[in-house]
Amino acid sequence: MNVLTELKPGVMYSEKELAEDVGFDRTPVRKALQRLEIEGLLAIKQRRGIQITEVDADVQLRLLEIRRPLQNFAAEYAAIRGTDDDRRIMQTFGEESLEASKAPPASRSQALSAVRTAHDLVVDACHNEFAQKNHACCPGLVAPFLDFSHEVRRFQHRRRIARAAIA
Questions:
Q1: Which tens digit of pLDDT belongs to each residue from 47-57?
Q2: Which of 67, 92, 111, 165 holds its CA 20 to 30 A away from the CA of 56?
């Protein structure tokens, strides 16, 4: 589900309705909604629902002012601190992206999701929890177009990693 194209600004949606639309349980949907609220893409109204916000170009430009130095920092430290596993994952993603680039993306959402994944891989590889937290809070120009189900899958993936680390 693409937040901008499928959900209308100003309309109230229920968490249950969104969970059913994307086919996920409510817990990961709730976490994704909380992240999207931090990014300013929606407002969670207690006992009323979720309201999609209007995209403001000025706000997006101010976010970009912060995002660029953070991306540069993450890239520099990913090169320094990245593990062999990080490099292997990025190499695989790069090869898959190169192969996928031979044909146009199936949708704008798919292309932007791939951009977000590339950013996520670099930030994760820098192994700096503060960069990771800031990355989550400063979505930059890509965020208004993010695929909502990508956010849910990302939360589920991180939960699986955390469970594996505890086991």
A1: 899 998 877 77
A2: 111
